[in-house]
Each structure stands twice: as C-alpha cells, then as structure tokens.
Amino acid sequence: MILKKYNKEYANKILKWANEKEAFYKWTAGILGDYPINEEKFNKVDSIIALTAYEDKNLIGFFTFRYPNKTINELRMGFIIVDPKYRGKGYGKKMIVEGLNYAKKVLHAKKVSLAVFENNIPAYYCYKSAGFVDINIEKIEKYKLDGKELRCRNLEVTL
C-alpha cells in the first residue's frame, strides 16, 4: 500500500463511497456540510493534510490529518473512509497503519487521536487493531442525525 497527497480529480469517486445519508454522516459528522455535498465543498479538505491510499494502483481509501492544538507533536486523524468493495478485507487497518507511519516519519508526530461514532463498530475495531486505545475526555462529542443523538468515542495512539 502506498499513500499519496489527495488529488482533487478523485473527489467524486470518494464521495460515492458514502452515497447514503447515514454513511455520509458517519464519515464526516456533517463537518463538510449537509448531505449530499458537491466536489467543491469536499475539496476544502485540501486545506489540511489530505491523503489517499492505493493498493496495486487502485484508489482504495482516503483520510486527513490536522493539528488540533498549536503543537506539531499531535495530529488528529479524520474523514477516514475505504472504498466499499475493499472493506472487511484488512485494507482499512493497513491504511491506518501506513497513515500512522507517515505521521511519525514525515510529520514527526508523537501522538495521533481520532473520534469514531459509538454505532460505527467496524471502524472502532479497525482503529483498535491498528493500535489506538480508548481515552476519556471531559466533553463527549455529540451530533444529531434525523433526531437521533450520535456520540463519539475518542481514541489515540502514541507513536
């Protein structure tokens, strides 16, 4: 697996991976806007560290890093998604591990954190298998989707 800087020409393809409202909100928490979003809105991710994952020259995944604090030692991973035809086959874990290697070797981070919705069990276990551990924070992130409250679990890994 190789990682490459995000290329805007793949926006439409990546957006199709979360082409239902619930899947879209599990992926973005609505941070990019209301479902559905267009390529222009999605391409705002280019203002942070946006990466794509390739396996055998096939685009299989996407994620971002951002600096949540003023320090360069800590990164926040987000907008993590794998092409549905590659899910459940270990590619998500592989992508996360490659992302963590990138964070350590290229971005010189010491810690990476992320949040995942409590009802996104496959993603939660993917992150755990890649080395993330649960952390407790004072304020739990909560989002609304069709009148239902979605709560987040926070995880981190020390590099």
UniProtKB/TrEMBL annotation:
SUPFAM superfamilies: Acyl-CoA N-acyltransferases (Nat)
A Pfam match: Acetyltransf_1
Domain N-acetyltransferase: 1-155
InterPro entries in the cross-refs: Acyl_CoA_acyltransferase, GNAT_dom
PANTHER family: ACETYLTRANSFERASE, SPERMIDINE N(1)-ACETYLTRANSFERASE
Name this protein carries in UniProt: GNAT family N-acetyltransferase
Lineage: Bacteria, Bacillati, Bacillota, Clostridia, Peptostreptococcales
